[in-house]
Amino acid sequence: MKKMTISKTAKNNAITYGMVIVAFIIVQILLATGHVSSLMKGLLVPLCIYIIMAVSLNLTVGILGELSLGHAGFMCVGAFASSFFSVCMKDTMTNAGLRFFLALLIGAAAAAVAGIIVGIPVLRLRGDYLAIVTLAFGEIIKNVVNVIYLGRDSAGFHVSMKNSMELNMLEDGKVIINGAQGITGTPNNSTFVIGFVLILITLFIVLNLIHSRSGRAIMAIRDNRIAAESIGINITKYKLMAFTISASLAGVAGVLYSHNLSTLTATQKNFGYNQSIMILVFVVLGGIGNIRGSVIAAVILTLLPELLRGLNNYRMLIYAIVLIAMMIFNWSPAIIDFRKRHSFRQMFGKKKTAKEVQ
């Protein structure tokens, strides 16, 4: 029975990886043949960002079972930490590939540290309380970044919370973080290929964690906290582990986001409450705990508004209908039962023997 479970897990993981790889190959062929519009080309990197965000949030919401509404805050931390590093090292580190790789590590580490700092007090809460506190964290991060003025001259770094004039820099000084105006001059190193590689890495980390001993402990905490604690599972350790990994992956998405723009600002649209809710919508519609579903939902709900842009008067109506249809398909008990009874395996696969059922 154990061998069958491992085989099924490997098959599901292979399907997920294969789906992403096939989609990447198809897009590359379309790009090579010139069948992709400039608008759709501009959506390829954001698409990768949303997939990484949805998969990482599903680790917290679906696998850990905790509702987080501040996921965009961790993305903001990773974006600004990496962008700050890249701008500072742009002149001294000429190797763009190495610089971007280090920026990825710095963004992921900064978001992970933020996840630990937030997670230690927050994960003691449950349900709505945890959601409210994580929501507050996301808003705090965004507003703190908007009041930071940071510059550098030959004497070192200067920080102010008032305005850039208060930095008191020398003539060779340069403002790096300019309050609400953000950071300008970040190298545009993000590409669709890099985004695809980061998606595979994210899937590898999350899927392997889920099917590991730690993942089973995390899901045991989700299903029954008291029972998990009674058999010796360290609740705080595993909850903090899942929350930190999820935050770190959101930081990676932030790095990809910041290096796709010439100017990075911490606005409500980019890193605010609406961004966190949109990522949560991807997770819910794709299926809570369903990693493959998060990938599919992120792709569909990112591309759909642009594909329907020609139907300007009916675009949002069709978008809303698709959202409702996906919700019914994923969560309606009658539809779920119908899918089980009429699945491909049931119709075309061999029937299980009594021994296999047992």
TrEMBL record:
The chain crosses the membrane at residues 14-31, 43-63, 69-88, 100-123, 192-210, 277-304, 316-336. CDD domains: TM_PBP1_LivM_like. InterPro entries: ABC_transp_permease (IPR001851), LivM-like (IPR043428). Keywords: Cell membrane, Membrane, Transmembrane, Transmembrane helix. It is found in: Cell membrane. This is Branched-chain amino acid ABC transporter permease. It holds the Pfam family BPD_transp_2. It is a multi-pass membrane protein. It comes from the Bacteria. One of its GO terms (cellular component) is plasma membrane. One of its GO terms (molecular function) is branched-chain amino acid transmembrane transporter activity.
